[in-house]
Design goal:
The protein has helices at residues 2-17, 21-24, 31-34, 52-77, 92-100, 106-116, 120-132, 138-162, 167-170, 186-205, 215-234, 238-249, 252-263, 273-313, 319-352, 399-402, and strands spanning 393-394, 397-398. With 407 residues, the chain is mainly alpha-helical. It has a two-stranded antiparallel sheet with strand order 1-2. A hairpin with a 2-residue loop joins strand 1 and strand 2. Helix 8 (138-162) runs antiparallel to helix 13.
């Protein structure tokens, strides 16, 4: 039994690595047919992927320049906070303990109290302040959010002018009829190159961006997305691939815009038109996300790849069809995970009249430790709490900033 399983794994891996026709393509189609390109036509040839290198580099450089020379001055004009948390006083013993365990339990704290002859309140406060040093400032978040808003709005705008006017958007069966002979229109080709380059840049920059709790979920999301785009390009599923990308691009700009608005709120600012506007943007994002990711994506895209694809290109399934739909289903599961996150945060903010902060942050501590008492709680009347509502804040972090980047 084990030998048969291992043999199957080896066979599948070999066929995938060697680009075997029977692994990637439906019966009756070969790579020579799929890649037969006439003068003036564009087929999804592997050589065209060379464009990804300069495009990805251009996006990374553009982000650096935008954040430094546009987003930073804009944030300062809007008086976004650049305040750094107060560092703890130097202590070699606590520094050594922090490196081995940044969140000590009560037993370790008690031992450290005896070692340095200081009360537990001092040790707890020292560790909180030390952890807070790793939390990015609101300005850093504003810079990153502004870039993501600009990039995602650009992708949506490009997709809006490319995808909906194609015949396959209204009739998804056209994605598969004689697909092996379909050429790739220039606008669709460049749309693919730009999208794939953007996701490659996200995967690279994720290790340098603000660390969030859903780091690995987002990393898996980026890898799955890159695989989907690459595979759909390689086997000329470009039509359905463009639909999937466009559906995913619809909600993203709204979330990033709402987050950017949240970062511009000032400490101690009460209810304002800016907060109301931000709440409206976030609610718009939430409705678009639920509609596009939970309904339109499975009804329009997965339905086509799961049923219409096998009906037109089948009748027997082939490995690529199975793998393609597994990847699409993985994305759909992630959409439900993030939908529950959205509902949970909105529910908590409405019931409590405040927001817990950025649920994706690497640390639960606030960046301003001086607003907390010795037990780590925000005293009454401090901490910049909002007057309630969906976009309320705690310590200046907006609910918009608490949501995941839904790419």
């Amino acid at each position: 039994m084990m030998a048969a399983i291992l043999e199957s794994i080896v066979t599948v891996t070999y066929n995938a690595v060697t680009f075997n026709d029977k692994f990637y393509l439906n019966p009756g189609v070969t790579w020579s047919v799929l890649h037969k390109e006439k003068p003036g036509e564009v087929k999804p040839l592997p050589g065209y992927l060379i464009y990804l290198l300069p495009f990805t580099l251009l996006i990374l450089v553009s982000r650096f320049l935008f954040e430094r020379y546009i987003a930073l001055p804009l944030g300062r004009y809007l008086k976004v906070s650049e305040k750094l948390p107060t560092p703890p006083e130097p202590n070699a013993i606590l520094e050594k303990a922090f490196k081995s365990n940044p969140k000590p339990n009560d037993r370790l704290i008690a031992g450290l109290c005896k070692t340095i002859d200081r009360p537990a309140r001092f040790v707890e406060r020292w560790f909180r302040r030390k952890r807070a040093l790793a939390i990015p400032t609101k300005m850093t978040k504003f810079q990153e959010g502004s870039w993501r808003f600009l990039a995602m709005l650009s992708l949506f705008t490009i997709g809006f002018f490319v995808v909906p006017n194609k015949a396959f958007w209204a009739n998804t069966r056209l994605c598969w009829l004689n697909y092996e002979n379909l050429t790739v229109p220039p606008d669709l080709f460049w749309y693919y190159m730009i999208e794939l380059s953007f996701y490659l840049s996200l995967t690279i920059s994720q290790f340098m961006d603000i660390k969030r709790k859903d780091f690995w979920q987002m990393f898996i999301h980026h890898i799955v997305t890159i695989l989907l785009i690459s595979l759909s390009y390689a086997v000329n599923y470009v039509a359905v691939g463009a639909m999937i990308m466009f559906v995913h691009d619809m909600a993203d700009p709204w979330l990033e815009f709402a987050k950017v608005i949240g970062y511009t709120r000032q400490p101690g600012e009460g209810r304002s038109k800016r907060q109301t506007f931000g709440e409206g943007i976030f609610i718009t994002f939430m409705l678009i996300f639920f509609y596009t990711r939970l309904y339109l994506y499975p009804a329009h895209c997965i339905h086509s790849t799961l049923l219409e694809m096998i009906e037109i290109l089948g009748p027997e399934p082939w490995p690529m069809w199975v793998g393609f739909n597994i990847l699409l289903s993985t994305l759909y599961v992630l959409h439900w995970f993030w939908s529950f996150q959205i509902v949970r945060v909105v529910k908590d903010s409405i019931l409590a009249g405040k927001v817990r902060g950025d649920v994706r942050s690497a640390d639960e501590d606030s960046g301003n430790e001086d607003t907390r008492n010795g037990n780590g709680h925000v005293p009454s009347g401090r901490g910049n709490r909002s007057s309630g509502g969906v976009a309320g804040t705690t310590n200046g972090d907006s609910i918009h900033g608490s949501m995941v980047t839904q790419r």
